[in-house]
Amino acid sequence: MDLLFPWLRELVLALVLAWLLAEAAGRGRRGLVLAPLLSLLALQAWRGLQIGFLPLTNKYEAFLAFAAALLAVATWRYPRLGRGGRALVAVVAAAFIGTTLAFDAALSWPTPLLYTGWYAVHVPLSFLAYAAWVAAAADGLDFLGHRDAATLLQRQEDNLRVGLLLFAVGLIFGGIWGIVSWGAWFLWDAKIVWSLAAWLYFAALLHLKYWPLRSAAVRAALSLLGLLIVLFTYVGTSFMTGSIHSF
User: Fold this and answer.
1) Distance between CA 170 and CA 176 in Å, rounded?
2) Dihedral through CA 194, CA 198, CA 201, CA 204, nearest 10?
3) Which of 174, 146, 173, 147 is nearest to 244 (CA)?
């Protein structure tokens, strides 16, 4: 079995691409998302058992964990996403899984700073929040394809609310982890600053309906911009800056 689990990554990637093609052909269904999700969770569980810790110790595991969060949100929200939106989530998930082909897949053990329950809660909550915001961007893409303003606003608001709640809790736990690890709940670090900026951006997007500018098309465009903000907050600050959160 130990020889089988490392190959699950390739299987998951193939299953996600199959889901993407099925959506493009109008034959998508929830089971096509559930299959790669369960396979990916099995792979991460195997890695976690090998190291005796949460499998989030390197960029290989982190990218797979974010893909798992995307697939989990897609499974949950599947009936409330259009074909275009589901395809967008599939593309992002496939991109993150595919990127791990360039990463070292060797097992690594956690550093002393990671041995805290705050870390084990902070990171998964953040990934699920990011995934919910990607789903909000998917809603925006669906609107551009079908122009159903009422559907866009309701579905997008649900995803934004879930993302904000999860990310807020994740930030609180991250602040506590910061006090335990670095003696401060806030540092002028690229990841921390961009995380706060992302939370404020999506909070503003959620409250846009109370502003004079209430166009659904504007909200759709801003949600797609939010996808770029999520990607930079998660990936850009880790690879393009000297953040203490760098992989």
Assistant:
1) 10
2) -130
3) 174
For the chain, the domains span 1-109, 111-247
Tens-digit pLDDT profile for residues 63-121: 999 999 999 999 999 999 999 999 999 999 999 999 999 999 988 888 887 888 888 89
Assigned token pair, 4? 């089988």
Q: Is the pLDDT of residue 1 over 50?
A: no
pLDDT digits (tens, 9 = 90+) for 173-197: 988 877 877 777 767 778 888 889 9
CB contact set of 96 (below 8 Å; sequence gap of 6+): 63, 64, 66, 67, 70
The closest alpha carbon to 126, from 75, 169, 94, 86, belongs to 169
pTM, rounded to two decimals: 0.92
Query: What backbone phi and psi angles, to 5 degrees, belong to 58?
Result: -155, 175
166, 132 Cβ separation under 8 angstroms: yes
Gap between the Cα atoms of 39 and 219, Å rounded = 35
What is the CB neighbour count within 10 angstroms for residue 228?
11
